[in-house]
Design brief:
Elements: H1 2-58, H2 64-76, E1 85-89, E2 95-98, E3 115-118, E4 121-126, E5 129-139, E6 143-150, H3 152-202, H4 217-271, H5 273-303, E7 313-316, H6 317-327, H7 329-334, E8 338-341, E9 350-353, H8 355-371, E10 378-388, E11 391-400, H9 407-410, H10 430-440, E12 444-450, E13 454-462
Parallel strand pairs: 8-10
Antiparallel strand pairs: 1-2, 1-6, 3-4, 4-5, 5-6, 7-9, 10-11, 11-13, 12-13
Length: about 475
Amino acid sequence: MAMAKMTRKGMLSSLISTMVLLGAIFVFCSIYVKHFFYGGVQQFVDSQFALIDGFFMQIATESQRCREEKMLEWIRNFSESSKMELLLLGDNKQIKGASSGFEFESLYGLSNKKTMIDDNVYITMLGPQKIMVFEHDLGPDDGYVMAWVLIDEINKEMSTILGVLFLIMALVLIFVVVANTYFTDSIVNTIWTINRTANKIAKGDFRTRIVKRSNDEIGDLCAVINNMAEELSATETMKNEFISSVSHELRTPLTAIMGWAETITVCGLDDDLETFEKGMKIIASETERLSRMVAELLDFSKFQNTNTTLERKEIKLLRLVNETVWIFKERAVKEEKRLVFKYDEHNDVLVLADANRLKQVLINVLDNALKYTDANGLVSIIAAEENIDGARYAAIRVTDNGCGIKKEDLKQVKTRFFKANYTRRGSGIGLAVADGVVALHDGYLNVDSVENEGTTVEILLPIYERRGA
């Protein structure tokens, strides 16, 4: 219904604008044609009057009677009498002679209604015929010459030309209407298809696609919507996998906590101290694991809010990295993995950062490195300084020799919900959160990896230089 209204609106708008344009062209052409024909007649008559003036100058020295006789003879022998009637009139408008050879006693039948075209040029009626009259003064004693031209034939010719022009414009209008109808329908049908497809996508059908039929802006719009559907489909798949993964991640420690809580309740402290201590350690470990997952989810939730702010302070970066590494030392030993980081505290660098946020980034990166590194593997942390576009950056590179990431998955590792390896625990949002935090610090987080060889995560942060230092 809405599309039908759009079609009618487009059709009406096009029709009105085309009719106004064609109407203006027709009026202009009518004026031009009339000016062309009437101007041609006037130019012809003026040329004959010029001949009369030339002849009159030749006889100007003769007597008035002689001049009149010679003028009458010239008019009676007028060579263009078939095209125009030429009359010699006295001051009292008495007809003295005519080029047609007929003797006129007066201007009987000449209408008093005149349509002036120019000085001494007007259109009037002579009986039933329309004529264009020209008056040309010869002198105070010699009267004046009147010429008239029948313009009915001229008007017919003009009408024929304007009729043909009107027919052409009518055909143009029909063509415009047909072409506009076809063009509007093609656009409206495509928009209607886009509308239906968008509604399907909005309802969760991400498999639907629009057939791209042109390479214009409409075609580009179809391609964008298809790409949007693909992105939404991929995001929906990752979201579902994320929910499944998080559910599993939460269920595993909860199951362990519940199981050992029941075991401790049944056994009691006095019955089996060793079992009690073992159970409490597992409960504490799994509780810490749950706490980390919940914190990760909360961080992710915060970063969906664009109003996230940082509490920046001067921080010694390498000291912060070292403190974070020590958090994972015991875990690395338990998992039989080597975690190596050495730094010179006298060569530490300052960054302007939110310590808690930055620490969470390092925790996420180190947790991933250990998670994807097998037993007897190595995770090394190296600090360096980089110069990017004339600015100094502190670079923290965390490198492992674990399972690595496939080349086709590498570009998506910082995408929320994405997991390159579903055989390892994790929610798939750790790097997404880390990337967001680093970006808020005006830094960069880069990931480079080779499958089955290892991964390097590089964190680049601007070095803070005190003014006057």
